[in-house]
Write a structure and sequence with these properties.
Radius of gyration: 18 Å
Strand content: over 45%
Structural class: mainly beta
Largest sheet: 13 strands, antiparallel
Distance between the termini: 45 Å
Strand order of the largest sheet: 7-6-5-4-3-2-1-13-12-11-10-9-8
Shape: globular
Number of domains: 1
Number of helices: 4
Helix content: under 10%
Order of helices and strands: HHEEEEEEEHEEEHEEE
């Protein structure tokens, strides 16, 4: 389980479970409709498996109203009812959706395990990091690539990054759905996630959808805050097996993650959608200019 708790894998796994399917509009077409006054709400749940065994779940709640989004999520990992290992994480993000992309206001992430806990809070202004609080403070290390002010410009947090993956309509090509490079700062490290089309897969989802899903290959690109000689960092950077399968939700006009696959040095972690619900306002009119 050390691989699941490694900091870089925690960040990648956390982000991949948080592809929030609630930000849609005339994305990429240069036109954004007027905001719908009625809030839109998304609830979703994923089962977490490790080497084929269920070890926990991930739940999220997201709301979007008048171009502003608020997201909260909880992840739970437990072995032998917590007697062997238990990990609970809470994360949240808020911000505003603009035609050029998301403008995060604040991001937080905290977790508790049998022997450790951590809390991270980040505040943004115009996609620039303004404040960072990490408790307990990260130990200084000359082996870690320093994070500079330059690394904290033109970035988004792991939750807000999903705006850059939103697609209107259920008829996009795989290259359009998967073709993204996401610049992320999680409070401790700066990295990119490079997505590209790998193929398609026929699926039968819990929400009733039966048909093809696009398989996106996800490449983790460390930039700063990591230790280049660290085994976990090296494995993550060289890992070509990270995948996210995106399925269409026609009634909402977007794509959402159905299945996420993350190989680790000691096995494979997967997340599979078990419940997904959209309610509230018109998603096609959720953004403002």
């Amino acid at each position: 389980m050390n691989a699941l708790r490694a900091s870089r894998y925690r960040s990648v796994l956390l982000f991949l479970t948080l592809f929030l399917p609630f930000l849609v509009g005339a994305w990429g077409h240069g036109q954004i409709a007027a905001a719908d006054s009625k809030p839109s709400k998304v609830t979703a749940k994923y089962n977490i498996n490790f080497n084929g065994l269920n070890i926990g779940d991930f739940k999220l709640l997201a709301t979007l109203a008048n171009s502003e989004y608020n997201v909260s999520a909880q992840a739970r990992i437990s072995l032998l009812a917590g007697m062997l290992f238990e990990w609970n994480g809470l994360t949240s993000s808020s911000g505003r959706v603009m035609s050029r992309g998301p403008l995060p206001y604040a991001y937080s992430f905290g977790y508790k395990s049998n022997d450790k806990s951590e809390k991270i809070d980040v505040k943004f202004s115009n996609n620039v990091v303004r404040e960072i609080a990490v408790n307990p403070p990260q130990r200084p290390s000359s082996a870690r690539v320093p994070v500079t002010r330059k690394h904290m410009q033109n970035v988004v947090d792991p939750l807000s990054a999903v705006v850059m993956l939103s697609n209107i309509g259920a008829d996009k090509s795989g290259a359009e759905v998967c073709g993204r490079r996401l610049p992320i700062f999680d409070g401790k490290a700066r990295y990119d996630l490079q997505l590209s089309l790998k193929g398609t897969k026929q699926i039968s989802a819990s929400n009733g959808y039966k048909g093809p899903a696009f398989i996106c290959r996800v490449k983790f690109i460390p930039i700063a805050g990591h230790k280049p000689g660290d085994d976990d960092s090296n494995f993550a950077a060289k890992n070509d097996g990270i995948e996210v399968w995106m399925m269409p939700i026609s009634k909402a006009g977007l794509y959402v993650p159905y299945y996420i696959n993350v190989p680790t040095p000691v096995g494979t972690a997967t997340l599979t959608s078990s419940a997904f619900n959209v309610e509230g306002g018109d998603f096609r009119r959720a953004l403002v200019q």
